[in-house]
Design brief:
This protein is mainly alpha-helical. The chain is 72% helix and 0% strand. The chain folds into two domains: 1-91, no CATH class; 92-168, Winged helix-like DNA-binding domain superfamily/Winged helix DNA-binding domain (Arc Repressor Mutant, subunit A). It has helices at 10-34, 37-53, 65-82, 94-97, 101-111, 115-126, 131-138, 142-167. α1 runs antiparallel to α2, α2 (37-53) packs across α3 (65-82) and α5 packs across α8 (142-167).
Length: 168
């Protein structure tokens, strides 16, 4: 039997509410993983659909659960795509799309980070997760995540300070 409108399904209502609260963080992380807005939208949709099919309420899972489901889905997609093409297409860097010098400078600094560091920064600052939640979502030890976050912040600080000095 097919469910009607979402108002009649408490599970769907709960996830719609969670989506309203966490949309920005989930979207930022999906975009970080895919580098393409269309693929990011598909990834987020697939992750939420997968969770809904398991009949799990948002308050029954850890805050990093959706991030982990997206990450695992992206890894699985990557394995499938690897046989079709050597490298996934990448979205043009923000530095080519933004006109504000401050934003371009930050995007250049962000692009200089390793993928793992950029993932931790995205989850922490766009997703609002704690380091413990990031460790759970990525499957990495807490000490590794904390070190990646610290090194990423130091790299960003250095890159931005060097940029400011070169502009003076």
């Amino acid at each position: 039997m097919r469910m009607g409108r979402s108002e009649h399904n408490p599970l769907t209502l709960a996830w719609e509410s969670a989506l309203c609260l966490h949309r920005r963080g989930w979207w930022s992380y999906a975009l970080h993983l895919c580098h393409d807005p269309d693929d990011a939208e598909d990834l987020l949709h697939d992750a939420l659909t997968s969770i809904l099919e398991r009949n799990i309420l948002p308050d029954e899972v850890a805050p990093g659960y959706v991030y982990r489901v997206m990450r695992n889905a992206r890894i699985s997609r990557g394995r499938r795509e690897k046989t079709r093409r050597a490298h996934a297409p990448r979205l043009a860097p923000h530095s080519e799309r933004c006109t504000t010098p401050d934003v371009r400078g930050f995007d250049v600094a962000l692009a200089s980070l390793t993928d793992d560091q950029r993932e931790v920064i995205t989850l922490k600052h766009a997703g609002g997760l704690t380091l413990e939640q990031i460790a759970l979502a990525t499957g990495r030890p807490l000490g590794t995540v904390a070190g990646q976050h610290r090194r990423a912040i130091e790299s960003l600080r250095t890159a931005l300070m060097n940029r400011e000095e070169s502009e003076v």
